[in-house]
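Supplementary Methods, section 5.1.

A reviewer requested that the exact input to the structure prediction be made available. We therefore reproduce it here, unchanged from the version used in the analyses.
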Amino acid sequence: MPKVGVNHTHIYYEEEGSGIPLVFVHEFAGDWRSWEAQMRFFSSATGGYLLGTGYPPSDVPESPEAYSQENQVEDLKGLMDGLKIEKAHLCGLSMGVTPRFYSD
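The structure derived from this sequence is encoded token-by-token as follows.
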């Protein structure tokens, strides 16, 4: 299972397709599987990425601070840096939208 080291933890991701990256960020109460059907659909036209934080197979930090909005942004940046993604479209649900509001 592919993982990227970010913020002293390891984040699971999936990658499918090629083209302009589209990164799906799940909500707090869900995991990467909540976007699986959408990623499979859009990956025929884009490079689809699923980001899974705070749930297995990613590491599950015990500290509540690990799930702060600031850390969500750092997790997304770390994933993109680790995968050498310079720019991407972001698609988030509920708290998964948070990184979009803090990103450049």
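The mean pLDDT is 78. These observations are discussed further in the main text.
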